[in-house]
Design brief:
Elements lengths: L10 H12 L2 H13 L6 H28 L5 H8 L4 H5 L1 H30 L7 H12 L11 H18 L2 H27 L15 H9 L12
Helix pairs in contact: 1-9, 3-4, 6-8, 8-9
């Protein structure tokens, strides 16, 4: 009896899928905020330490477990852990891996639906003529389930359901679906990231406030990356 085992179609597909898994919303949205609030450029020091001592070893562990389990035809955490040790409780402990994946996927799909909504509003011209403060307030209005910025009832829920359906369809196609999505999505991520970086650096004083009328993008970069080494003694950092 032969078993049909899925495999990556190409090395570049595997690389792009892993890159899409590692580089995403956290790097674009969360990292700058954390750096500003936790020592600016000095935040890179604990960040790199955690990356070397925790990130890379955990990545190796995950890959090793996946390859070990895959050789035996096991592709879920309960069965992978069951084959790695004689103690029977590991199989039941592995159930948490399934629930963790579901929770993370649900959370990230909700954030992903925000970006989908903003793409829609950007194309439709919702933000045209809005001041900076009004654009910022738009987000709070959007998250209020009972309100609608487009006339669509329960707008945030609608975009969330669409996003969930799209992700479910991609995953239902197996590795081929994930690889195809990565080959399209990751290059787009890099292109749009480069565009946003260029646009941000060429805004001049368009983003200045009444408190700092001469502020520009370079001032923001200096504020973000200037090391505050005294912050390294802060346990919160």
């Amino acid at each position: 009896m032969s078993t049909n085992k899925e495999a990556w179609g190409s090395r570049i597909g595997l690389i792009l899928a892993m890159a899409g898994n590692a580089v995403g919303l956290g790097n674009f949205l969360r990292f700058p905020v954390q750096a500003v609030q936790n020592g600016g450029g000095a935040f890179i020091i604990p960040y790199l330490v955690c990356f070397v001592l925790m990130g890379i070893p955990i990545l190796w562990i995950e890959w090793s477990m996946g390859r070990f389990g895959g050789k035996g035809g096991n592709h879920s955490t309960p069965f992978i852990l069951d084959t790695m040790g004689k103690a029977r409780f590991w199989k039941y402990f592995g159930v948490f891996g399934i629930f963790t994946n579901i929770a993370v996927a649900s959370y990230y799909c909700y954030i992903e639906s925000w970006t989908m909504s903003y793409v829609f509003h950007s194309i439709s011209g919702t933000f045209t003529g809005m001041e900076q403060g009004t654009v910022a307030d738009f987000f709070n209005t959007y998250l209020t389930i009972g309100k609608s910025t487009t006339g669509i009832p329960y707008e945030a829920v609608v975009f969330y359901v669409i996003c969930l359906a799209l992700n479910t369809y991609i995953l239902s196609r197996g590795l081929k679906g994930v690889e195809r999505a990565a080959k399209i999505g990751v290059p787009m991520l890099l292109i749009f990231g480069a565009f946003l970086a260029f646009r941000g650096l060429t805004l001049g004083t368009d983003g200045a406030s009444a408190m700092h009328p001469d502020a520009n993008a370079w001032d923001g970069l200096n504020f973000l990356w200037t090391p505050q080494f005294d912050s390294l003694s802060n346990p919160t950092v």
